[in-house]
Structures are given as structure tokens and as C-alpha cells.
Write a structure and sequence with these properties.
Largest sheet: 8 strands, mixed
CATH architecture of the largest domain: 3-Layer(aba) Sandwich
Pfam family, one: MerR_1
CATH class of the largest domain: Alpha Beta
Distance between the termini: 70 Å
Structural class: alpha/beta
InterPro entries: DNA-bd_dom_put_sf (IPR009061), MerR-type_HTH_dom (IPR000551), MerR_fam (IPR047057), Methyltransf_11 (IPR013216), SAM-dependent_MTases_sf (IPR029063)
GO molecular function: methyltransferase activity
Bound molecules: S-adenosylmethionine
Keywords: DNA-binding, Methyltransferase, Repressor, Transcription, Transcription regulation, Transferase
Number of strands: 10
Protein name: Methyltransferase domain-containing protein
Order of helices and strands: HHEEHHHHHHHEHEHEEHEHHEHEE
Shape: globular
């Protein structure tokens, strides 16, 4: 009968040092039995499988403490927490490095093109500090509305529409119109990304319509609810400002009731992100709280009681004329549909 392996045999088997194995043991990840006579470690088949898992998880950057936790509990939620955390870490790092790479490109071009050495120094610092600022803004966005705690009651609350502004009174109509605009493109082979998928109500229409759709949201709880309601829906943690996908990955990007959680500066960064992951001939359809312009906002606010004005100021309604101008920079045309006093749908082609 195989009495197991000693530490050198295990080290050789995995091509790692014996010190590494001792380290995992010290951290409580491995617990080989000790021989009665000389207290030498003996590793059995179970230890080997465990070490294989530890090394695999380490290879994708999962921390030793998280691995310990993963190995301790076999629960799906526990796995999801650790792997989602890692997904987020990796995505953040990709975004940070991409911004740095972009600024390095500009710096290198400047150095090649500039003759006056002294002037170049200042320009370089400016480029790098702009790129640092961009990374800071991307990383500083916080969910000040606490969507995790809202997730379980969201669908009920939308139906009751308790806020004074009654922003959800045309909810079903808005979701249907977003769907219809995509349907009108007349193609089923489209890869669709929904940003701020929430509990999945809009995504459901696309699933039923036979589209290839992925929903991202910054709230883990919203994603859990969406996944419970629609097991076939692919969901991922992801934010407007750091979309976790490669360039030109999607034909269509959709979103409802989510864009107003970004302030004006953040909206422009989000548009850059959306344009990055959208294919060249891609289409954006977004329903959200908007005003046609700052002037029309003033008109609307003038007629509202203070409590409603405050409700509006708690969020960041878009100005359609500014969005239009921003999308034009990407050679995109924006057209819009007014649904009610606060809700509009924009279609960007
Ligand atoms: C009011 S809910 C709308 C949910 C869904 N789209 C709907 O129409 O019912 C807003 C959703 O957007 C998500 N969200 C807000 N800001 C976000 C951001 N910066 N990135 C990704 N998701 C965001 C929230 O977590 C929440 O699920």
C-alpha cells in the first residue's frame, strides 16, 4: 500500500521548493500527517489534490488567505465571493495598466517629436498627471445609493413607485421601447451588453428574443437576484467606468435607469469606455432620467416643489444636448425619444 510521499517527492512532483510547501503548511492550507517514528511529513492523495488546487488558485493571483477560506468551505456563495473579488482586482489592474500604456504612448511620441528638451519635461509631467487623474476618477466612483441593500426589494419598489417624482410610472414601456429599437435593427446575431443590469428585467426581453446578452452591474446582490430570476443570463461584476471587456467586443450596448448615477465628468469617461468596447458600427440604446438641456432643466425645476427638486439633485440627470455633442466626437449620431417629463431614450448610431 502507498504510504504517501515525503516533502522532497512532493516538491519534485510539482516543481516547487520544499520551502513553499512548508509555507502553505504554516499558513494552515496543508496538513500532512507526521510519521510516528521521526515526525517526517507524509503527504497522501488528498494533500496532493489540495496542493494542486492551491497552486492553481495562486497562478491566477488569489491570495493565500482567500485560498484558505475557499478550501475550508465548499459553498457556492463563498466561491463566488472570492472569484468575483479576483475578477474585480484583475479588471482594475488591466484598466490601470491600459491608462498608463496610453500615457506612455503620448509621452514617447512627444519625446520623438520635440526638439526643445526643456519644454518637453513639463509636457511629459502633464501627460502623466492627467493619466493619474483619470485612474483616480475611475477608482473613486462609489455606490452612494447602496444598491446591494436595495436588490431584494427593487422589483416590488419599482411597481409601487413610491418616490414623489414617479420616475417608474413608464418603466415597462421604457424597457419595451429599448428592446423594440434593437429589434428594429433587424439582426439577431448581435452581441449585446447591458450595463447596470440590476435584477435583469430588460435583459430578460433580450434572452427571450434569442439575443446573446451579458449583463454587468457594480452590485453583487443585484447580480444574484438577476441570476436567480434568469438562470440562463450571463452576469458579471462591472462598472460603467471600468467595463471588464476588450475593445470592440459588442454590437449593441443597452442600459436603463443607471446612467444617472454618474456625474458629468464620469459620464464622459463612461462614454469613452462604452465607445471602446463597442464595435465600429455598434449601436447604443439607453433609457434614463434626462433633460434636453440645462435651459429646459431650469424650466422643469421651476414648476416643481422643493422636495422634488431635491430628489432630482440627489442624482445626475443627463443633458441630451451635451451627450449629443460628446457622441459626435466619436462620429456617432444621437437621436432621442421623450417618454415623460424625466425619462428619455437615446439611440446612438
Ligand atoms: C435603478 S437600478 C436599474 C436597474 C435596471 N437597469 C432596471 O432598469 O431596472 C440601477 C442599477 O445600476 C447599477 N449601477 C449604478 N451605477 C453603476 C455603475 N457605475 N456601474 C455599473 N452599474 C451601476 C446599480 O447597481 C443598479 O443595479
Amino acid at each position: 500500500m502507498n504510504k504517501g510521499y515525503n516533502i522532497s517527492e512532493i516538491a519534485e512532483m510539482f516543481n516547487i521548493t520544499t520551502n513553499k510547501i512548508r509555507f502553505y503548511e504554516k499558513k494552515g492550507l496543508l496538513t500532512p500527517i507526521r510519521q510516528d517514528d521521526n515526525q517526517y511529513r507524509r503527504f497522501n492523495e488528498e494533500d496532493i489534490v489540495r496542493l494542486q488546487s492551491i497552486l492553481t488558485y495562486r497562478s491566477i493571483g488569489i491570495s493565500v488567505d482567500s485560498i484558505k477560506n475557499i478550501l475550508k468551505s465548499n459553498e457556492k456563495e463563498n466561491y463566488l465571493t472570492h472569484f468575483n473579488n479576483q475578477w474585480q482586482l484583475v479588471n482594475d489592474e488591466i484598466h490601470r495598466l491600459n491608462t498608463i500604456r496610453k500615457s506612455l504612448e503620448q509621452v514617447i511620441d512627444k519625446i520623438y517629436e520635440e526638439n526643445d528638451d526643456f519644454k518637453v519635461k513639463e509636457d511629459l509631467l502633464e501627460i502623466v498627471s492627467e493619466s493619474n487623474k483619470l485612474n483616480d476618477i475611475k477608482n473613486q466612483w462609489k455606490d452612494k445609493w447602496n444598491f446591494n441593500s436595495w436588490a431584494r426589494s427593487y422589483d416590488k419598489d419599482v411597481k409601487r413607485d413610491i418616490g414623489e417624482l414617479k420616475i417608474y410610472k413608464n418603466y415597462d414601456l421604457i424597457l419595451q421601447k429599448v428592446y423594440d429599437l434593437v429589434e428594429a435593427l433587424g439582426r439577431k446575431d448581435l452581441k449585446v451588453l447591458e450595463i447596470g443590469v440590476g435584477t435583469g428585467n430588460l435583459a430578460e426581453k433580450f434572452l427571450n428574443g434569442g439575443y446573446n446578452i451579458i449583463g454587468i452591474d457594480q452590485s453583487r446582490e443585484m447580480l444574484s437576484v438577476a441570476k436567480e430570476k434568469y438562470p440562463m443570463l450571463k452576469v458579471r461584476l462591472g462598472e460603467f467606468l471600468k467595463i471588464p471587456y476588450d475593445n470592440k467586443s459588442f454590437d449593441v450596448i443597452i442600459s436603463t435607469y443607471a446612467f444617472h448615477h454618474l456625474n458629468e465628468t464620469e459620464k464622459y469617461i463612461a462614454i469613452e469606455e462604452i465607445m471602446r468596447v463597442l464595435k465600429d458600427d455598434g449601436v447604443i440604446v439607453m433609457g434614463d432620467l434626462m433633460f434636453e438641456s440645462k435651459a429646459s432643466e431650469e424650466e422643469v425645476l421651476k414648476a416643481l416643489p422643493q422636495s422634488q427638486v431635491e430628489e432630482i439633485k440627489d442624482e445626475y440627470y443627463s443633458y441630451i444636448d451635451l451627450l449629443k455633442a460628446e457622441f459626435e466626437k466619436y462620429n456617432k449620431k444621437l437621436q432621442y425619444y421623450r417618454i415623460d417629463k424625466f425619462n428619455y431614450i437615446i439611440e446612438v448610431l
